[in-house]
Protein backbone atom coordinates (compact mmCIF):
# COMPACT_ATOMS: atom_id res chain seq x y z
CA UNK A 1 0.00 0.00 0.00
CA UNK A 2 1.46 3.38 -0.96
CA UNK A 3 0.51 6.79 0.36
CA UNK A 4 1.07 10.15 -1.31
CA UNK A 5 0.66 12.26 1.83
CA UNK A 6 1.77 9.95 4.65
CA UNK A 7 4.83 8.07 5.88
CA UNK A 8 4.30 4.63 7.43
CA UNK A 9 7.18 3.50 9.68
CA UNK A 10 7.42 0.48 11.95
CA UNK A 11 9.52 0.25 15.14
CA UNK A 12 8.71 -3.27 16.31
CA UNK A 13 5.16 -3.22 17.69
CA UNK A 14 4.96 0.59 17.35
CA UNK A 15 3.70 2.17 14.14
CA UNK A 16 4.35 5.82 13.33
CA UNK A 17 2.11 7.46 10.74
CA UNK A 18 3.43 10.88 9.69
CA UNK A 19 1.43 13.49 7.79
CA UNK A 20 3.95 14.37 5.11
CA UNK A 21 3.08 17.70 3.52
CA UNK A 22 5.61 19.93 5.29
CA UNK A 23 5.61 22.44 2.40
CA UNK A 24 2.04 23.42 3.40
CA UNK A 25 2.55 22.81 7.15
CA UNK A 26 0.76 19.44 6.85
CA UNK A 27 -2.51 21.07 5.83
CA UNK A 28 -5.14 18.34 5.80
CA UNK A 29 -6.34 17.90 2.24
CA UNK A 30 -9.18 15.51 1.40
CA UNK A 31 -6.53 13.09 0.11
CA UNK A 32 -4.52 13.26 3.34
CA UNK A 33 -7.58 12.67 5.53
CA UNK A 34 -8.74 9.78 3.34
CA UNK A 35 -5.29 8.19 3.38
CA UNK A 36 -5.03 8.66 7.15
CA UNK A 37 -8.39 6.99 7.65
CA UNK A 38 -7.27 4.02 5.52
CA UNK A 39 -3.89 3.87 7.29
CA UNK A 40 -5.54 3.76 10.71
CA UNK A 41 -7.89 0.99 9.56
CA UNK A 42 -4.81 -0.92 8.32
CA UNK A 43 -3.16 -0.34 11.72
CA UNK A 44 -6.24 -1.87 13.37
CA UNK A 45 -6.10 -4.88 11.04
CA UNK A 46 -2.37 -5.56 11.45
CA UNK A 47 -2.34 -7.63 14.63
CA UNK A 48 1.36 -7.03 15.37
CA UNK A 49 0.81 -3.23 15.61
CA UNK A 50 0.15 -2.45 19.28
CA UNK A 51 0.59 1.33 19.55
CA UNK A 52 0.20 4.06 16.90
CA UNK A 53 2.00 7.42 16.87
CA UNK A 54 0.55 10.20 14.71
CA UNK A 55 3.14 12.81 13.74
CA UNK A 56 3.60 15.69 11.31
CA UNK A 57 6.72 16.14 9.15
CA UNK A 58 8.76 19.32 9.40
CA UNK A 59 8.47 22.31 11.73
CA UNK A 60 4.72 22.04 12.42
CA UNK A 61 2.27 19.29 13.32
CA UNK A 62 -0.54 20.76 11.21
CA UNK A 63 -1.99 24.10 10.10
CA UNK A 64 -5.45 22.51 9.95
CA UNK A 65 -7.68 21.75 7.02
CA UNK A 66 -6.36 22.55 3.59
CA UNK A 67 -7.72 25.96 2.66
CA UNK A 68 -6.76 25.78 -1.02
CA UNK A 69 -3.29 24.44 -1.77
CA UNK A 70 -2.81 23.77 -5.52
CA UNK A 71 -3.14 20.00 -4.86
CA UNK A 72 -6.42 20.51 -2.99
CA UNK A 73 -7.84 22.74 -5.74
CA UNK A 74 -6.98 20.11 -8.36
CA UNK A 75 -8.54 17.40 -6.21
CA UNK A 76 -11.75 19.44 -5.82
CA UNK A 77 -12.12 19.45 -9.61
CA UNK A 78 -11.98 15.63 -9.60
CA UNK A 79 -14.22 15.32 -6.52
CA UNK A 80 -16.64 18.26 -6.69
CA UNK A 81 -18.80 18.93 -3.65
CA UNK A 82 -22.33 17.63 -4.22
CA UNK A 83 -24.74 20.54 -4.71
CA UNK A 84 -26.85 22.09 -1.98
CA UNK A 85 -26.80 22.00 1.78
CA UNK A 86 -27.35 18.25 1.84
CA UNK A 87 -24.16 17.72 -0.17
CA UNK A 88 -22.20 19.94 2.22
CA UNK A 89 -23.65 18.14 5.22
CA UNK A 90 -22.68 14.75 3.83
CA UNK A 91 -19.15 15.87 2.90
CA UNK A 92 -18.41 17.64 6.18
CA UNK A 93 -19.87 14.87 8.28
CA UNK A 94 -18.01 12.09 6.44
CA UNK A 95 -14.66 13.85 6.09
CA UNK A 96 -14.38 15.55 9.47
CA UNK A 97 -16.77 14.16 12.10
CA UNK A 98 -17.08 10.47 11.24
CA UNK A 99 -13.33 10.13 10.63
CA UNK A 100 -12.49 11.69 14.01
CA UNK A 101 -15.01 9.51 15.84
CA UNK A 102 -13.46 6.42 14.20
CA UNK A 103 -9.95 7.59 15.10
CA UNK A 104 -11.00 8.26 18.70
CA UNK A 105 -12.25 4.68 18.92
CA UNK A 106 -9.31 2.90 17.24
CA UNK A 107 -8.99 -0.15 19.54
CA UNK A 108 -5.27 0.43 20.15
CA UNK A 109 -3.49 3.23 22.03
CA UNK A 110 -2.77 6.26 19.84
CA UNK A 111 -0.30 9.05 20.65
CA UNK A 112 -0.14 12.45 18.92
CA UNK A 113 3.39 13.82 18.62
CA UNK A 114 2.90 17.58 18.30
CA UNK A 115 5.38 20.32 17.47
CA UNK A 116 4.89 23.89 16.24
CA UNK A 117 1.47 24.91 14.96
CA UNK A 118 -1.46 22.66 15.81
CA UNK A 119 -4.40 24.65 14.50
CA UNK A 120 -8.09 23.72 14.24
CA UNK A 121 -8.16 20.53 12.11
CA UNK A 122 -4.68 19.77 13.49
CA UNK A 123 -6.08 20.09 17.01
CA UNK A 124 -9.02 17.84 16.06
CA UNK A 125 -6.59 15.13 14.98
CA UNK A 126 -4.43 15.46 18.09
CA UNK A 127 -7.43 15.53 20.42
CA UNK A 128 -8.90 12.29 19.12
CA UNK A 129 -5.65 10.52 20.02
CA UNK A 130 -5.43 8.94 23.49
CA UNK A 131 -2.26 10.74 24.56
CA UNK A 132 -0.62 13.95 23.34
CA UNK A 133 3.10 14.62 23.74
CA UNK A 134 3.90 18.24 22.90
CA UNK A 135 7.18 19.91 22.08
CA UNK A 136 7.86 23.08 24.03
CA UNK A 137 7.27 25.13 20.85
CA UNK A 138 3.74 23.77 20.25
CA UNK A 139 0.94 26.30 19.73
CA UNK A 140 -2.73 25.34 19.69
CA UNK A 141 -5.79 27.30 18.55
CA UNK A 142 -9.37 27.11 17.34
CA UNK A 143 -9.91 30.37 15.45
CA UNK A 144 -13.35 29.56 13.97
CA UNK A 145 -15.24 32.37 15.70
CA UNK A 146 -13.01 34.83 13.87
CA UNK A 147 -14.58 33.84 10.54
CA UNK A 148 -18.11 33.62 11.86
CA UNK A 149 -18.11 29.91 12.74
CA UNK A 150 -18.62 28.33 16.15
CA UNK A 151 -15.71 25.89 16.35
CA UNK A 152 -14.33 22.89 14.49
CA UNK A 153 -16.41 19.91 13.36
CA UNK A 154 -15.12 17.46 16.04
CA UNK A 155 -15.33 19.68 19.09
CA UNK A 156 -13.94 17.99 22.18
CA UNK A 157 -12.42 21.10 23.78
CA UNK A 158 -14.88 21.39 26.70
CA UNK A 159 -13.67 17.91 27.72
CA UNK A 160 -10.02 18.55 26.91
CA UNK A 161 -9.59 22.05 28.42
CA UNK A 162 -12.57 22.33 30.75
CA UNK A 163 -15.55 24.54 29.88
CA UNK A 164 -14.17 27.92 31.03
CA UNK A 165 -10.88 27.72 29.20
CA UNK A 166 -12.59 26.23 26.15
CA UNK A 167 -14.87 29.28 26.02
CA UNK A 168 -11.96 31.69 26.50
CA UNK A 169 -9.98 30.19 23.63
CA UNK A 170 -13.01 29.99 21.35
CA UNK A 171 -14.16 33.54 22.09
CA UNK A 172 -10.68 35.04 21.46
CA UNK A 173 -9.27 32.57 18.92
CA UNK A 174 -5.89 33.13 20.54
CA UNK A 175 -3.08 30.59 20.59
CA UNK A 176 -2.33 28.70 23.76
CA UNK A 177 1.15 27.40 24.43
CA UNK A 178 2.38 23.91 25.23
CA UNK A 179 2.81 24.89 28.89
CA UNK A 180 -0.77 26.23 29.04
CA UNK A 181 -2.02 23.09 27.28
CA UNK A 182 -0.29 20.92 29.87
CA UNK A 183 -1.72 22.95 32.76
CA UNK A 184 -5.25 22.51 31.34
CA UNK A 185 -4.80 18.76 30.80
CA UNK A 186 -4.92 18.82 26.99
CA UNK A 187 -1.44 17.30 26.71
CA UNK A 188 0.19 14.59 28.80
CA UNK A 189 3.61 16.17 28.87
CA UNK A 190 5.80 18.80 27.30
CA UNK A 191 9.30 17.89 26.15
CA UNK A 192 12.12 19.85 24.51
CA UNK A 193 11.61 20.09 20.75
CA UNK A 194 14.85 18.19 20.07
CA UNK A 195 13.69 15.27 22.24
CA UNK A 196 10.09 15.02 20.96
CA UNK A 197 10.51 12.15 18.54
CA UNK A 198 12.71 10.02 20.82
CA UNK A 199 10.57 10.56 23.92
CA UNK A 200 7.32 9.83 22.10
CA UNK A 201 8.77 6.63 20.66
CA UNK A 202 10.14 5.62 24.06
CA UNK A 203 6.71 6.08 25.67
CA UNK A 204 5.02 4.13 22.85
CA UNK A 205 7.49 1.27 23.29
CA UNK A 206 6.89 1.18 27.05
CA UNK A 207 3.14 0.88 26.40
CA UNK A 208 3.67 -1.74 23.66
CA UNK A 209 5.25 -4.27 26.05
CA UNK A 210 1.77 -4.77 27.50
CA UNK A 211 -0.87 -7.19 26.31
CA UNK A 212 -2.80 -5.87 23.28
CA UNK A 213 -6.17 -7.12 24.54
CA UNK A 214 -5.62 -5.54 27.98
CA UNK A 215 -4.71 -2.22 26.32
CA UNK A 216 -7.81 -2.41 24.14
CA UNK A 217 -10.10 -3.03 27.12
CA UNK A 218 -8.38 -0.32 29.20
CA UNK A 219 -8.95 2.22 26.42
CA UNK A 220 -12.52 1.07 25.94
CA UNK A 221 -13.32 1.60 29.63
CA UNK A 222 -12.08 5.20 29.52
CA UNK A 223 -13.88 5.98 26.26
CA UNK A 224 -17.08 4.34 27.50
CA UNK A 225 -16.86 6.43 30.67
CA UNK A 226 -16.73 9.53 28.49
CA UNK A 227 -19.65 8.18 26.46
CA UNK A 228 -21.63 7.57 29.67
CA UNK A 229 -20.90 11.17 30.65
CA UNK A 230 -22.39 12.23 27.33
CA UNK A 231 -19.26 13.01 25.33
CA UNK A 232 -20.28 11.27 22.14
CA UNK A 233 -23.74 12.85 22.12
CA UNK A 234 -22.13 16.26 22.83
CA UNK A 235 -19.69 15.79 19.93
CA UNK A 236 -22.54 14.96 17.57
CA UNK A 237 -24.58 17.89 18.82
CA UNK A 238 -21.63 20.28 18.49
CA UNK A 239 -21.27 19.20 14.86
CA UNK A 240 -24.87 20.31 14.28
CA UNK A 241 -24.08 23.70 15.87
CA UNK A 242 -21.07 23.90 13.56
CA UNK A 243 -23.38 23.24 10.59
CA UNK A 244 -25.78 25.95 11.80
CA UNK A 245 -23.04 28.53 11.22
CA UNK A 246 -22.52 27.55 7.55
CA UNK A 247 -25.30 29.87 6.24
CA UNK A 248 -24.02 32.86 8.22
CA UNK A 249 -20.43 32.07 7.14
CA UNK A 250 -21.63 32.17 3.53
CA UNK A 251 -23.03 35.66 4.34
CA UNK A 252 -19.64 36.61 5.86
CA UNK A 253 -17.90 35.31 2.71
CA UNK A 254 -15.79 32.84 4.71
CA UNK A 255 -17.45 29.69 3.32
CA UNK A 256 -18.67 28.47 -0.05
CA UNK A 257 -17.80 29.69 -3.52
CA UNK A 258 -16.75 33.20 -2.48
CA UNK A 259 -14.27 31.74 0.01
CA UNK A 260 -13.00 29.09 -2.41
CA UNK A 261 -12.14 31.80 -4.94
CA UNK A 262 -9.77 33.45 -2.43
CA UNK A 263 -6.14 32.36 -2.04
CA UNK A 264 -5.22 30.47 1.14
CA UNK A 265 -3.29 33.52 2.38
CA UNK A 266 -6.35 35.79 1.98
CA UNK A 267 -8.33 33.26 3.95
CA UNK A 268 -5.72 33.02 6.75
CA UNK A 269 -5.70 36.80 7.06
CA UNK A 270 -9.23 36.71 8.51
CA UNK A 271 -8.20 34.13 11.10
CA UNK A 272 -4.86 35.73 11.93
CA UNK A 273 -6.04 39.31 12.25
CA UNK A 274 -4.85 41.08 15.39
CA UNK A 275 -7.64 41.72 17.85
CA UNK A 276 -5.72 43.52 20.56
CA UNK A 277 -2.55 43.72 22.57
CA UNK A 278 -2.99 40.27 24.13
CA UNK A 279 -3.37 38.57 20.78
CA UNK A 280 -0.68 36.28 19.36
C1 LIG B 1 -13.38 24.04 10.73
C2 LIG B 1 -12.08 24.43 10.17
C3 LIG B 1 -10.98 23.72 10.36
C4 LIG B 1 -9.66 24.14 9.83
O1 LIG B 1 -8.68 23.52 10.16
S1 LIG B 1 -9.55 25.49 8.79
C5 LIG B 1 -7.82 25.84 8.67
C6 LIG B 1 -7.35 26.62 9.87
N1 LIG B 1 -5.95 26.90 9.74
C7 LIG B 1 -5.46 28.14 9.65
O2 LIG B 1 -6.18 29.11 9.60
C8 LIG B 1 -3.97 28.28 9.53
C9 LIG B 1 -3.61 28.80 8.19
N2 LIG B 1 -2.16 29.06 8.09
C10 LIG B 1 -1.62 30.18 8.64
O3 LIG B 1 -2.28 31.01 9.21
C11 LIG B 1 -0.15 30.33 8.48
O4 LIG B 1 0.31 29.42 7.51
C12 LIG B 1 0.61 30.09 9.80
C13 LIG B 1 0.34 31.26 10.76
C14 LIG B 1 0.20 28.76 10.44
C15 LIG B 1 2.14 30.00 9.48
O5 LIG B 1 2.56 31.17 8.82
P1 LIG B 1 3.99 31.17 8.08
O6 LIG B 1 5.02 30.60 8.97
O7 LIG B 1 4.17 32.56 7.56
O8 LIG B 1 3.83 30.13 6.88
P2 LIG B 1 3.00 30.33 5.51
O9 LIG B 1 3.88 30.99 4.49
O10 LIG B 1 1.68 30.97 5.77
O11 LIG B 1 2.72 28.79 5.10
C16 LIG B 1 3.65 28.00 4.39
C17 LIG B 1 2.92 27.39 3.19
O12 LIG B 1 1.88 26.57 3.71
C18 LIG B 1 0.63 26.96 3.14
N3 LIG B 1 -0.41 26.72 4.13
C19 LIG B 1 -0.35 26.97 5.47
N4 LIG B 1 -1.49 26.63 6.06
C20 LIG B 1 -2.30 26.14 5.09
C21 LIG B 1 -3.64 25.63 5.10
N5 LIG B 1 -4.35 25.51 6.23
N6 LIG B 1 -4.15 25.25 3.93
C22 LIG B 1 -3.44 25.32 2.77
N7 LIG B 1 -2.18 25.80 2.71
C23 LIG B 1 -1.61 26.20 3.86
C24 LIG B 1 0.81 28.43 2.82
O13 LIG B 1 -0.12 28.86 1.83
C25 LIG B 1 2.23 28.46 2.34
O14 LIG B 1 2.26 27.98 1.02
P3 LIG B 1 2.90 28.90 -0.15
O15 LIG B 1 4.34 29.10 0.25
O16 LIG B 1 2.74 28.12 -1.41
O17 LIG B 1 2.15 30.20 -0.15
UniProtKB/TrEMBL annotation:
EC number: 4.2.1.17
CDD domains named in the record: crotonase-like
Top EC class, one word: lyase
InterPro entries tied to this protein: ClpP/crotonase-like_dom_sf, Enoyl-CoA_hydra/iso
Keyword Lyase on entry: yes
GO biological process: fatty acid beta-oxidation
A Gene Ontology molecular function term of the record: enoyl-CoA hydratase activity
Keywords, comma-separated and alphabetical: Lyase
Pfam name, any one: ECH_1
PANTHER family: ENOYL-COA HYDRATASE ECHA13-RELATED, ENOYL-COA HYDRATASE-RELATED
Protein name: Enoyl-CoA hydratase
Naturally occurring in which organism (per UniProt): Vineibacter terrae
Amino acid sequence: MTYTTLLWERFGAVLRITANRPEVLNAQSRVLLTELDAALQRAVDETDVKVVIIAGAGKHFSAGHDLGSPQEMEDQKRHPVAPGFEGEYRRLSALYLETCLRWRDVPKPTIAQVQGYCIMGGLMLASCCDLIIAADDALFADRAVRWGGAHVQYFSMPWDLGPRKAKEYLFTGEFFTAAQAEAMGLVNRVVPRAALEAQTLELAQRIAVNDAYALRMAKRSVNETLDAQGQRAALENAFKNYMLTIPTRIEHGTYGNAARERSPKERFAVLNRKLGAADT
